[in-house]
Amino acid sequence: MNKTETEAIALVRTLMQRWHSDSNLQVLVCPPFTSLSQLHKLLVSSPILLGAQNISEKHSGAYTGEISADMAAEFCSYVILGHSERRAYYGETDSLINLKVKAANQAGLIPILCVGEELEERESGRAAAVISRQLQEGLKDVHLDDPGRLVIAYEPVWAIGSGKSASGSETAELIGRVIRPVLSGLWGEKTAEGIRVLYGGSVNPANAGSIFSQREIDGALVGGASLNPEDFLGIIEKVS
After folding, report:
1. Which of 16, 71, 116, 209 sits in a 20 to 30 Å window from 177, CA-based?
2. Residue boundaries of the structural domains of the chain
């Protein structure tokens, strides 16, 4: 919940001016709903992609204050689902998130499904079980022909906004040991290998290089650093 429409346009204009398209790299911005229409117009001829931060699981109806997948799909190609803040502050369950993933698919949106453990779960050795459950329940009965139509974001909850981040090697090990095998169990190894897995949790220009040096990590879900164009561009440069 950051940036007015005017502020969002200014940030994106800076990105457009400073970032030169790279065929091996995708840049995606996910602003609040209030900025989607204007940013859609601004980015129509730009390689920068646009996503939403959430959607309703409902298609339409008497759900005051909600935004459906079809509404978001007028402007966006991606949507973030199951973010740890949605789980923690708004009580979103794996079953609800599963309905949102299916709604996104039906509307042609690419879900960015967030999974990750809290500090207590990590310290008690339950991180793998928690992430496995979030994936299996969040993706239950989801049909996936094209691995490019799904993104997984591993965001250890203890690292978000704390200034702490999981090391690149720790994250890569967890992706290889837990996330890829669960995805393989759902859709087969070939499809699982094609699904992009991002890391999220206090990513910044200083630690981005070590994170992206890991083969298993395909990108980043950037939080606070994305609000400052200099920091965001610094991360993009490290990815390149």
Report:
1. 209
2. 5-239
57, 83, 92, 121: which is the annotated catalytic residue?
Answer: 83
DSSP 159: G
Q: How far is CA 59 from CA 65, 72, 107, 112, in A?
A: 13, 11, 9, 19
**Which of 92, 117, 155, 216 is an active site residue?**
155
Do the bridges between strand 78-81 and strand 110-115 make them parallel or antiparallel, or are there none, so unpaired?
A: parallel
Q: What separation in angstroms does the CA of 209 have from each of 4, 202, 205, 239?
A: 31, 13, 7, 7
Active site (annotated) includes residue 83: yes
pLDDT for 179 beyond 80: yes
Radius of gyration of the chain (CA): 17
Mean pLDDT computed over 208-219: 92
Question: Is residue 155 annotated as part of the catalytic site, yes or no?
Answer: yes
Q: How far apart are CA 54 and CA 33, in angstroms?
A: 9
Instruction: Report d(CA 137, CA 23) in Å as an integer.
Output: 34
Each residue of 133-170: pLDDT tens digit? 999 999 999 999 999 999 999 998 877 766 666 788 88
Q: Where are the alpha helices (DSSP H) in the chain?
A: 5-18, 36-42, 69-73, 84-90, 94-107, 119-123, 127-138, 168-174, 180-187, 189-194, 205-212, 229-239
How many residues does the structure list for the chain?
Answer: 240
Q: Where are the alpha helices (DSSP H) in 68-167?
A: 69-73, 84-90, 94-107, 119-123, 127-138
* 74: Cβ contacts below 8 Å, ≥ 6 apart: 40
CATH of domain 5-239: 3.20.20.70
